[in-house]
């Protein structure tokens, strides 16, 4: 099954209130700088998978800020292993990974399980000690939840999208409205574990 068909099927399930937990993250933060990394470390999580587009940089943005470089550097010093996993091309992913001095996987094909299998092999990690950090419920969060790794949702860093990320974002916004009415997930109601929702 293609990832787009998989996403559409999940979207309609969530809209109908079926299996909506598959897109609800374990942790929800405003951005990557607001994530409680100490809490993750206390849970035994020291492998971090980061998405790129609208998670750490705007879509098509190539300017890596000193603040972001410092975050990645500090996380490394604290014992975290970091891997960038993106559905984007090597032309986009490799220069960013180089600036952040981290490993990478491009054209990863999230939310398919193969993307996460490759990530764990690269990190030499397992489902208990790894977290996925991203802004997309239907790729980053769904894929992580189905695979069994800890999922962290962040708000998008920009309201600009390309065709690929824009379609997923439109579906996500519809899901969030539906889940908000059911009070199963409320936008901007940040938490470090699901039980706090």
> What letter string, H or E per element, gives the SSE order?
HEHEHEHEHEHEH
**Count of individual beta strands:** 6
Q: Give the number of helices.
A: 7
Quaternary state of the chains: single chain
Please bin the fraction of helical residues.
Answer: 40-55%
Query: Any low-confidence stretches, pLDDT <50, length ≥5?
Result: none
The first-level CATH class of one domain is given as Alpha Beta
Q: What's the N-to-C terminus distance?
A: 33 Å
Features:
197 residues, Rossmann fold, 6-stranded parallel sheet, single chain, alpha/beta, 6 strands
Structure in words:
Helix content is 43%, strand content 13%. With 197 residues, it is α/β, with parallel strands linked by helices. It has a domain at 24-159: 3-Layer(aba) Sandwich (Rossmann fold), CATH 3.40.50. Strands 1-6-5-2-3-4 form a six-stranded parallel sheet, sandwiched between helices.
